[in-house]
Amino acid sequence: MGENTASKIGFTLLLGLFLTAAIFIPSGCGNHKAKEQETVKPKVDVPPFTALPQDVPTPEDNPSSKDKEILGKLLFYDPILSGDKDVSCATCHHPEMGYAEFLDISIGPNAQGLGSRRKFIEPNSIPFVKRNAQTILNTAFNGMQGHQTVQSENAPMFWDDRVQSLEKQALEPIKALEEMRGLHFTEEEILEVVVKRLQRIPEYQELFKRAFGGENPISVSNLGKAIAAFERTLVTNNSRFDQYMNGDQSAISLFEKDGFEQFKKVGCANCHNGPMFSDYKFHVLGVPENKKLPLPDLGQADKQALDSFAFRTPSLRNLRFTAPYMHNGSFMDLRRVLEFYEDIAHGKIRNKNVPKTKFDPLVAELKLSVKEMSQIISFLNTLNDPDFDKSIPETVPSGLSVGGNIQ
């Protein structure tokens, strides 16, 4: 044995003894902090990732039918539902934009154009909608986690979960001043105003009768049911990720599979999980305020219902079609979203109204590198499915402009 070899062996033995002793050093000084951090590390029971089901759930009191879906689609595109007859559901949820909107925060009545081209008509006293328009695609599966069956009547809706079920969700924008109602009717009267308008149109009389029957089929309740029935046809359950989860190993690339593993490893899956990639829970992230000017149009900071700055986890499906991102459209692309998460994981404050003490504990678990960001973004693209209904009615029964004032 040479002298150099003996020296190397001796050094290795000494290093091993040192490391062994270090393991058994009692906790204290610097080690106490590490142990304390470990004890408070949040534990998350992550629901399994699965493909979206082929069968779309429906509530018992609103079974789907072709007549309801046809009626609901016409109502979806008809601006007669808005106070000033200038805004439809499709104004902010257009098929060209994945039933979402290429706009950070939405613009409702007294405006013209579609998506990023939409502007208020002057003079104007209508405020911006404070939040980004979420896609309607796959909202039929809202609330689904793991292999659980969706309870359609309790499905969470909106960024603040203020109503449950697509039937109730369909009516809320009609009642909101800045979304569809406008200034000329109160929240309490607008739905009955809309129903009376529909009752005066012979084609709607016939369509509601086919869909619901009965002596007075045009009602507030049936209005919501018809729109919900149409929205349940807007599903994308054959993305490459769905194909992969259904057994086709070649549906996604090796790089995308690595991205899926990184997605789970770095902590994204703590909140974005299950078949819809959402835990449907509220989290405080401190997203920066929307910088759209003039700020007075936005009113006060959007604190959400409980003044907590907590918003519900959105789905990650079809992100290709739904930029900009976050509840107020703060980020134009996915890399900026991931960079934001990296910032807040390191304690950087991006919203002066939300101190670090309010951040969700799960935020600290996110640790991202540039390479990991690229892998994760590549994986997220496997959740896109362009195969959804993009057809637009040529006319609507009211005779108004299809989609509202969007030209």
CATH topology of the largest domain: Cytochrome Bc1 Complex, Chain D, domain 2
Topology pattern, helix = H, strand = E: HHHHEEEEHHHHHHHHEEHH
Q: Count every helix, treating DSSP H or I runs of 4 or more residues as helices.
A: 14
Low-confidence stretches: 1-39
The tally of domains stands at: 2
Largest sheet: 2 strands, antiparallel
Structural class: mainly alpha
**Fraction of residues in β-strands:** under 5%
Sheet with the most strands: spatial strand order: 1-2
Mass-distribution shape? globular
**What percent of the residues sit in helical stretches (DSSP H or I)?**
25-40%
Total number of beta strands: 6
How would you describe this structure to a colleague?
The structure is a single chain. With 407 residues, the chain is mainly alpha-helical. It folds into 2 domains: 66-231, Cytochrome c-like domain (Cytochrome Bc1 Complex, Chain D, domain 2, Orthogonal Bundle), CATH 1.10.760; 240-383, Cytochrome c-like domain (Cytochrome Bc1 Complex, Chain D, domain 2, Orthogonal Bundle). The protein has 14 helices and 6 strands. The protein has helices at 3-23, 30-39, 66-77, 89-92, 166-169, 172-175, 177-181, 190-199, 202-212, 220-231, 240-245, 254-265, 334-345, 370-380; strands spanning 111-112, 119-120, 156-157, 163-164, 282-284, 310-312. The chain has a two-stranded antiparallel sheet. Strands 3-4 form a two-stranded antiparallel ribbon. α3 runs antiparallel to α9 (202-212), α3 crosses α10 (220-231) and α12 (254-265) packs across α14. The N and C termini lie far apart (87 Å).
